[in-house]
Amino acid sequence: MVKSWATLGVDLHVEPTGTGVRRGLTDALRDAVRTGRLAPGTRLPSSRALATDLGIARNTVADAYADLVAEGWLTARQGSGTRVAERAVVPPADTTPPRRLHTRPAYDLIPGTPDLASFPRTEWLKAARRAFTAAPYQALGYGDPRGRVELRTALAAYLSRVRGVRADPEHILISAGISSGLRLIGAVLRARGAQDIAVESYGLPAHWQILDETGLRTRPLPFDELGTAPARLTDESAVLLTPAHQFPMGLPLRHDRRSAAVDWARRTGGLVLEDDYDGEFRYDRQPIGALQGLDPDHVVYLGTASKSLAPGLRLAWMVLPPSLAEEVVKAKGGIDTCGVLDQLTLAEFLTSGAYDRHVRSARLRYRRRRDTLVDALAQHAPDVHVTGIAAGFHAVLSLPPGTEQSVIQAAAWQGLAVHALSFYRHEHALADPLDALVVGYGTPPDHAWAGALEALCRVLP
Amino acid sequence: MVKSWATLGVDLHVEPTGTGVRRGLTDALRDAVRTGRLAPGTRLPSSRALATDLGIARNTVADAYADLVAEGWLTARQGSGTRVAERAVVPPADTTPPRRLHTRPAYDLIPGTPDLASFPRTEWLKAARRAFTAAPYQALGYGDPRGRVELRTALAAYLSRVRGVRADPEHILISAGISSGLRLIGAVLRARGAQDIAVESYGLPAHWQILDETGLRTRPLPFDELGTAPARLTDESAVLLTPAHQFPMGLPLRHDRRSAAVDWARRTGGLVLEDDYDGEFRYDRQPIGALQGLDPDHVVYLGTASKSLAPGLRLAWMVLPPSLAEEVVKAKGGIDTCGVLDQLTLAEFLTSGAYDRHVRSARLRYRRRRDTLVDALAQHAPDVHVTGIAAGFHAVLSLPPGTEQSVIQAAAWQGLAVHALSFYRHEHALADPLDALVVGYGTPPDHAWAGALEALCRVLP
């Protein structure tokens, strides 16, 4: 018995030093009980015996036992020692679906996630402390459904300065990601009787699905060598665009097409939904301003902290035309849905300049990655054409016709997760088919980037 | 003209050195066009002239012009120079609604919000630091739609220990408040073809509205001196109950009625939605265990940090019957909607014991408040009968028939916000009408409690 406990200790990597020992041991024991590895009624080794076996202090084991007794996993009775409680094990329900096995790929080049290892944790915690200390206690209550006024005010200033957005904090709405915002807009459009919404031939399938779930039909616009062509817009209720940096193809919307989209919205009363997901990251020239600045009454601006900071914050924002604001807030259900602390922290991050500093440093890092990507491709895969690299942190690598799926499969064999361009192609796309990879070069942590790049070069034709 | 351009450069703090010149100039020009300072059609100075005036490189001006042409603010035509685009200026919208004036009452006794001034800020920040420092960087990515596994695991242990809930972390779903969870359940029931859902004759109107918005019709159950009577349940798809502490009336659901609800669910395949909003706060005896423990396959357990900590966290949880879990996760749209940092912090708060410590201290504070409330009423309003005080942090104060509205009005004159019982009465309630106040005695900060209590006593008959 004691033997098997020693093994348990080793198997579960209970660190034998520091303050984490007790916790580690407690967790390991709890898991063992919970999963049924230790059957109800099982008598545990004495704290002395287990401590000797694991090479840790006896008190630590005694404390871990006491914790688990307090939580109800174990029972301790004078004379009969410590045992696994009789009712501790919940019999596994037969209907439980088998737990999915997430085999994490060795290298992740799926676009859409920034370099999370570079998240400014220390700065963020400092800002959280400052923001939380300064906040009135009322801030912790049920809040304004639009989100905290501190954040909306900070965003209005930031978006005006950096993206040329015309934003009144009154008409900004904080949402848990752009997708949550899109869901609200879709619901409002549907409630107004809308049936169709125009989208780009290439885009994010998750967004099309959200619109689909609200009851709208997505109709793709033509896509040509100059990008999305909005001239085909007719009686759609709205059009979803990525003007600054077409996702995933990577070009900006040309100025005459920007004008055409806004003109259509004015003429028909339609709405332009401007998805400005990575507007902060532009390398080759000055950022292209937001379309919203051209006509705030007909454009919904959607921005997010998911690319500039991290998706896990679940913080995004919409700048709404005044005429739409009330309906959208109402559709949100009358209460705020995002945690106050993160909102206050992001507001502090923006106003203190920490956000700008982080974006600048991230921009530099992504630009360097992009340059090594381009260099490596030039050397190892000279036939592959790279596009969409003037901004953001993903690139499109064109492949010889008919090779897309085989390259994706070869990548999978190399432990390399990467998406085919066809993944982002609308089923009714109006665009010539193109074999290509969409490579998110921002995602890997620094230490994994060289390996990811090598793996990528190996699978390219 | 050139004169005014020089002024423009100074006014807008265009730095004459460094890499920011082009951006500063572009922003300044864009603003000038947008605000109408530069009228449509205005011809801009040549890039050479403006560059000389501002003491910067000619290329910088040319680049700024080119950016603004690309963005649609300016037009450039061979021979006619650069001009402000005709359609660039948007007149300010007249449709902006006037900003609402929120006059905060002097004393807030609206039930539902805990004492926010006692939120354990220091402990929370410490837990945030520990949790955030320990988290792998991948935790900051797009997460499991059910929420972070650390939090679901901590909740499973906590709910099992404290509330007798039988919870597998796999079937717990984190949501932004109980209302978000209810919205998901409502949507799933509706998608399954459900039409009606039973509710209590007294309850939270916001919850009825959410169910209503998902397309379900709420049908109240009879309410008598023993509380909600589930015997009348027939073919409803589900029943929403507050078994531990009826909201707002304050009684627990009697054991035979608990059984009746579960029996109905088993017999008909219906679902019991158990709203356990303040299950931690019970004063007079051991907490009444959750109904869910009786039958995890037919009860959805809904809990929240909104009463035990603060609504601003926007963290709640559902323990789902295994057979329902997949549909609800799907209805959530495939991604997590709650910030990762707060989730990790709450997990750390739970596992470190800080949560228990906070709840115990809050329980003590609310109990003292309750005792001073009961004492003050006995002294100043002996005819008022207080009920529902064995748990939670609100009480029901019965009033002489026909006086409810006049008391509410008198309270408003005293700067005292308090709700009439009728506010919580379903429009089709099956219950004898009762004049009463629902007093949330947990809400005021300590320093305002005595004043709030005095004001309350002044308005009572």
Could you characterize what this model shows?
The structure is a homodimer of 461-residue chains. Chain A is of the alpha/beta class. Chain A folds into 3 domains: 5-84, Orthogonal Bundle (Arc Repressor Mutant, subunit A); 107-112 and 357-459, Alpha-Beta Complex (Aspartate Aminotransferase, domain 1), CATH 3.90.1150.10; 119-352, Type I PLP-dependent aspartate aminotransferase-like (Major domain) (Aspartate Aminotransferase, domain 2, 3-Layer(aba) Sandwich), CATH 3.40.640.10. Helix content of chain A is 41%, strand content 14%. Chain A contains 15 helices and 17 strands. Chain A has helices at 2-11, 20-34, 47-54, 58-70, 121-134, 149-163, 178-191, 205-213, 255-268, 305-308, 322-331, 340-351, 354-380, 404-413, 446-459; strands at 74-77, 81-84, 107-108, 172-175, 196-200, 217-221, 223-224, 227-228, 238-241, 271-275, 299-304, 316-319, 385-387, 394-398, 416-417, 419-420, 436-440. Chain A is globular, with a radius of gyration of 27 Å. The termini of chain A are far apart.
Could you write a compact summary of the structure shown?
Chain A is an alpha/beta fold. The first copy, chain A, is built from 15 helices and 17 strands.
Features:
461 residues, Aspartate Aminotransferase, domain 2, homodimer, Arc Repressor Mutant, subunit A, 3 domains, 17 strands, 41% helix, alpha/beta
The helix count of chain A comes to: 15
Strand content of chain A: 5-15%
Taken from the alpha-carbon principal axes, the silhouette of chain A is globular
Major sheet characteristics of chain A: 5 strands, mixed
Quaternary state of this entry equals homodimer
Greatest interface by residues involved: A-B, 80 and 81 residues
CATH architecture of the largest domain in chain A: 3-Layer(aba) Sandwich
The CATH topology of the largest domain in chain A: Aspartate Aminotransferase, domain 2
Task: Indicate the mean pLDDT of chain A.
Answer: 88
In terms of per-residue confidence, which ranges of chain A show pLDDT below 50 for 5 or more consecutive residues? 1-18, 88-102
Radius of gyration of chain A over alpha carbons? 27 Å
Structural class of chain A: alpha/beta
Number of strands of chain A: 17
The CATH homologous superfamily of the largest domain in chain A corresponds to: Type I PLP-dependent aspartate aminotransferase-like (Major domain)
Name the CATH class of the largest domain in chain A. Alpha Beta
User: What is the topology, as strand order, of the major beta sheet of chain A?
Assistant: 4-12-11-10-9
User: Could you tell me how far the N terminus lies from the C terminus of chain A, measured between alpha carbons in angstroms?
Assistant: 57 Å
Number of domains of chain A: 3
Tell me roughly what share of residues is in helical segments of chain A.
40-55%
